[in-house]
């Protein structure tokens, strides 16, 4: 049996119950998932997704590099080029059509800090309240 | 969650998962808890089996939770407000309401009562399909056993009248004095793992972080001072369901989409595709190349939950630490870094966050309900908001002394028939939902071998008698057609769905229920009608290359 070399306590990525999970980790793999018995909200229990649903983390389909569409197809590009392009296009569209011509979607799968920054980007940097996510679904 | 905001002044789950076993009665309505919130459903089962709680389950499908129920109500899709009005009617008629609570802590009781008086059990039975005796029994079980908790999920909210649905749930709790006590309350179960948190920190078009309204002058002044720029005009921005048509019209020209896949999760996929295709510029940040990214000009590779630090907030308002287990693959980066670096490039001052802890500190400074929440306080159990300052222990139960809006508001609600009802051409009702093994659009679970093995493809649930009439056997291929589109999938024939109603998920790209559903929205909450639309069902030959045994 493979021995993990550390245990990292975090939160299940699936449903709103937000079970605490202990990931038993070695390199970039999760070998086992347990849950702490003495802690809310799940007191040691997990469902099939929280217990076994982590293999997608190292799936070969994971995106590993920015992609820019060139002549109709998405092609790998360095971060600096991708971010410069996004900043330039958003700034240009804001200048031409106003801030409300831009809309942002944040995510119920991302952290509070990430969602906070996204709405701050919308309201402070772009200047629009056009920010929503799929919470309604 | 606009309904609860109207009734109480706060839209979140009122109680804690840990206090569920203290309930003497539980009403679970429009929540397939064992599949959607499995570990929470264990608490409901514990309340029933170990503590003798009375469980009432109301759902169009005979879901697993019904096996644990004292009483199961097979309610016609789209008729929950009538059912809940009917329960309230019986409670009033039999004098089971909590007069002291109503007088001390609520308002608008008389106006509401005038509407509820029009919903005697016989009428409600005709609308809902639930026998009148069962309506009376359910009302007694809920009102006579205290404390009583209500749980609901998208079976309540995902309707054109979802906002009204939620009001009828809140009315029932107010009538019986159940808010603010352990084992009681009104508990909307949030779907995705950080829906609660993304709303809390302002990921909504009408509120800044902490539900501070964009049209409140004091709030605007505070954020103008903090942001150092003039704020956008004091009217709400576009919701997702408004963004898409605006994109098609050309009013919205660019979109930035972080970790969402609207092509799969939104009603009427063909419409979504058209809208996205009309954009001049689309950026998608995600961990996989999802269906939405097909329309992107730039795709940015994001880190997954195990590859970053931060916080998530669960359905019971508990803010918990997310910890990095290992680095993201290749050049992928956490979304907070991507957004930070983009803002800097757009010339924004002060975006020098070194880590998520410093972002949470800023959230706390601007968001009263998160005021006392910092990384170093989250090493143990986490903290339930409201947690206004560094000494505050968090709030397991809301509304114990008062409601944020002062008094709880009774809101009269009338039954509205669903916008699309079955007819000769489309004689079935289609409702949609999830299965246990998969998650939403399967971006993650579709790439976990064991979960795909357990639930590899779409199975359309058809009642045995309907199937017999249409010559459909279990495992046969069928075509489901609505006014908007048509999909082919295999049938699962059994008695869980009710007659005349078929059930599909929105997990599978090959047979996407959202090709069929309506894009009609609740006027207040802007939630789409995903639960009810009219369809036709017919048996078709198996597609080429699919073996019949598989
Ligand atoms: S383990 Fe299951 S019940 Fe717990 S959060 Fe994950 S998906 Fe939800």
Structure write-up:
The complex is a heterodimer of chains A (137) and B (550). By secondary structure, chain A is of the alpha+beta class. Chain A folds into two domains: 6-58, Single Sheet (N-terminal domain of TfIIb), CATH 2.20.25.90; 67-134, no CATH class. Helix content of chain A is 28%, strand content 24%. The radius of gyration of chain A is 20 Å and the shape is extended. The model of chain A has no long low-confidence stretch (mean pLDDT 93). Chain B is α/β, with parallel strands linked by helices and 550 residues long. Chain B folds into four domains: 2-188, 3-Layer(aba) Sandwich (Dimethylsulfoxide Reductase, domain 2), CATH 3.40.228.10; 190-237 and 307-390, Rossmann fold; 239-301, no CATH class; 428-539, Beta Barrel (Barwin-like endoglucanases). In chain B, 30% of the residues lie in helices and 17% in strands. Chain B is built from 19 helices and 21 strands. Chain B has helices spanning 2-8, 33-36, 38-49, 80-93, 99-105, 109-116, 121-128, 132-144, 154-157, 162-175, 195-200, 217-227, 240-249, 262-265, 269-277, 335-345, 356-366, 449-454, 464-470; strands spanning 25-29, 54-58, 71-73, 106-107, 148-152, 186-188, 207-208, 212-213, 254-258, 281-286, 298-301, 310-313, 318-322, 383-384, 408-409, 428-433, 459-463, 477-481, 486-494, 501-505, 533-539. Chain B has a six-stranded mixed beta sheet with strand order 17-19-18-21-16-20.
